[in-house]
Design goal:
Number of helices: 2
Mean pLDDT: 90
CATH superfamily of the largest domain: TolB, C-terminal domain
CATH class of the largest domain: Mainly Beta
Bound molecules: calcium ion
Distance between the termini: 32 Å
Largest sheet: 5 strands, antiparallel
CATH architecture of the largest domain: 6 Propeller
Radius of gyration: 23 Å
CATH topology of the largest domain: Neuraminidase
Strand content: 35-45%
Low-confidence stretches: 1-20, 377-385
Strand order of the largest sheet: 27-34-33-30-31
Length: about 475
């Protein structure tokens, strides 16, 4: 096939991956979870997945659609305070960036007597599927005046710091004014250094925190948040994306930056909440907000950098707990637009997560873990009879710098072409063209003169008069 033909097919592939074809499917049909609220990968090369159950359990299992068993990694139900239907519980899990060597992970949970949020560190045992229940080191304990709005997310940023989400303390309307007060940690996103404790503390205050030299609130990274239910870092841009649950009118998405005030409870999303004193000076508006015709409680997600739904690359996938919608936000720094992908049952979509390859999953209170999928991953004259044994696997490592390896398998001998395109559909490399035998193959790719970005590798295989094509996205990080 000539060059023009390949580019034409590449364009067709992008067109065929239209939003209407993206859906959520059960990722692990034989598994069910009790109130799953977080989904995390340790990124330790094991390809295991960890699901947090709100009552206080963490379960671990193999990342395989046929997986039928989980193991109980940690049971903290005797320490966690949870009441049926409440926002209390074990709410967040983050693995240390050096987990593969140090075994540290961090959790965010609520405990009673007195009611408080606890940020704690634990360690794995010599059994990689079992945590040491006695290894707890409590880093921060924050009094909770009411049972709702506890935030719960934990995530390490690209700077190696641990970021922590806390809601405004609860009730309704933030009656204590916590979100606008930098004297309390409620209604904030915090940023701490877990690797270099300050004297008298179990953690360090990064010297570039916005209030690092203040009398209080030295852990604060950003404020003016009501109940930040799920934030995440985009590994390609480093941006911190956050869904902040609204009061009675607006759900909002923010890009969180150091020292900024995101408005609550002066504003609720883009509208005034306390209209009598709606001074918006110094407030950062949301990138996107929506009202009650769309949903009633946002569930923040992730910027899509996964391998299987190329048309979502670079878009922020989020959803809504009340309405069940799942959507993708495109934002170029100025203009935002949203496409709606699918809908889960109402009052079920509790959280999103990533696996080791960056694929996006959704946790739901029907007990199911869903994953995003697009049915069109192959095109060609015989697209409905893709032969067994034809598979383009995810490149490894990914993301990568310098060199990566592309692996694929062929059902028989035939003509093979492998090219790499940038996101505009322009071919930037042709790694192979010729005849190969059936079986497994690998191609190294060491791109020169290419910058950070998402590239699409496309495998074309011709045999007995048919052409089969499969594509995967790859992330180059310089
Ligand atoms: Ca806001």
């Amino acid at each position: 096939m000539n060059r023009a033909g390949l580019v034409l097919i590449a364009r067709c592939l992008f067109v065929s991956l239209s939003p209407a074809q993206i859906s959520l499917v059960e990722a692990f049909p034989d598994l069910r979870f009790d109130l799953p609220v977080d989904f995390q990968s340790p990124r330790d090369g094991s390809h295991r997945l960890f699901v947090v159950e709100q009552e206080g359990r963490i379960r671990v299992f193999e990342n395989h659609p046929g997986v039928s068993e989980t193991r109980l990694f940690l049971d903290l139900t005797d320490s966690v305070s949870y009441e049926n239907g409440s926002e209390l519980g074990l709410l967040g899990l983050a693995f240390h960036p050096g987990y593969a060597s140090n075994g540290f992970f961090f959790i965010n949970y609520t405990a009673a007597n007195p009611l408080r949020s606890i940020i704690a560190r634990f360690r794995v045992t010599t059994d990689p599927d079992s945590a040491d229940r006695t290894s707890e080191v409590r880093l921060i304990e924050i009094p909770q005046p009411y049972t709702n709005h506890n935030g719960g997310q934990l995530a390490f940023g690209p700077d190696g710091m641990l970021y922590i989400a806390l809601g405004d303390g609860g009730n309704a309307g933030d009656p204590l004014g916590n979100a606008q007060s930098t004297a309390t940690l409620l209604g904030k996103i915090l940023r701490i250094n877990v690797d270099a404790p300050d004297p008298g503390l179990a953690y360090g205050i990064p010297s570039d925190n916005p209030f690092a030299n203040a009398q209080s609130g030295r852990e604060i990274f950003a404020y003016g948040l009501r109940n930040p239910w799920r934030f995440s870092f985009d590994p390609a841009t480093g941006l911190l994306w956050c869904g902040d649950v609204g009061q009675g009118a607006r759900e909002e998405i923010n890009i969180i930056e150091s020292g900024k005030n995101y408005g609550w409870n002066i504003m609720e999303g883009s509208i005034c909440y306390n209209a009598a004193s709606c001074d918006q000076t110094g407030l950062t508006p949301p990138v996107w907000d929506y009202g009650r015709t769309i949903g009633g409680a946002i569930t923040g997600g992730y910027v899509y950098r996964g391998p299987s739904v190329g048309s979502l690359t670079g878009k922020y996938v989020f959803g809504d707990f009340v309405s069940g919608i799942v959507a993708a936000l495109a934002f170029d720094g100025t203009i935002a637009s949203v496409e709606y992908l699918d809908t889960l049952p109402r009052f079920s979509l509790s959280s999103f997560g990533l696996d080791e390859e960056g694929e996006v999953y959704a946790c739901a209170f029907d007990g199911v873990i869903y994953r995003l999928t697009s049915p069109v991953t192959s095109v060609g004259r015989q697209e409905k009879t893709i032969p067994q044994g034809f598979a383009l696997r995810q490149n490894y490592p990914n993301p990568f710098n310098a060199v990566t390896h592309i692996r694929f398998s062929l059902p028989s001998s035939g003509h093979v072409s492998f090219s790499v395109f940038d996101m505009r559909g322009v071919r930037v490399a042709r790694l192979f063209e010729g005849t190969l035998m059936g079986g497994s193959h690998a191609l190294p790719w060491e791109p020169e003169n290419l910058s950070t970005g998402v590239y699409v590798g496309q495998l074309e295989f011709s045999a007995v008069g048919h052409v089969f094509i499969q594509s995967r996205s790859m992330l180059l990080l310089r």
